[in-house]
Amino acid sequence: MLKEERQRVILNEVELHNRVQLIDIAEKLNVSIDTVRRDVKELDAESRLRKVHGGAISLGFAAYSPKRNSVYALDEKIVIAEKSATLLKENSVVLIDGGTTCLELARLLPPKLKLTCFTLSLQVAMELLNKPNVEIIFIGGKLSSDAQISYGGNTINNLAEIKVDYSFIGTGYVDTEFGLTEFDWDIVQTKKAVIKASKKTVLLCISEKLNSQHRFKTCSLNLIDTMVTELEPDHLLLKNFRNQDIQLL
Fold it and tell me: pTM for the whole thing?
């Protein structure tokens, strides 16, 4: 595979999943980690992604920007956010996860809607400051410099003290058989705590992530009440998900 082809694959994986590990890309491309590391270093120098220890993250995921120039599949994520916003009711208590799709939901909250909103995400918290009728409660803990979200033991303990009406979460990978999965064990533990802290859990997921899996399981699909994609619920790509005990929006 030519370098240009490798780098296109790397960029697509980074943009789709927000964060990737070098070892996973090397396996996918069947090349050495050193080769992938050189490609990522070059892409970082060209400001097409950001290199981090052991992997890479997308620019849209790494940097809070009102312009949203670097957000992958922005139109699809806006559709998902608009659908998700219809679930919100006046005076609800909700939790909004981190990630670019959840950030779009925060942007699109109706200005007059009164909510209490918990969040683990610095980016979401910053966006919610523009919503005068939203009471924002940031759940603290160890802060990820890559994802700009809190995680770890303190965050999990804080989540154990609340029960929100809805949590709106993202995922790296989702599959009907394997459920929601991630490559980061610590993030998985935090997401598990978010789901336990929620009366209902809503998954925000672009269709490109459907039918994919990774190492660590967050939860089975039956723990998700609603899955929101940019697709119509009767779309062919959602056929296997229609057989699950989950609402499709």
Answer: 0.89
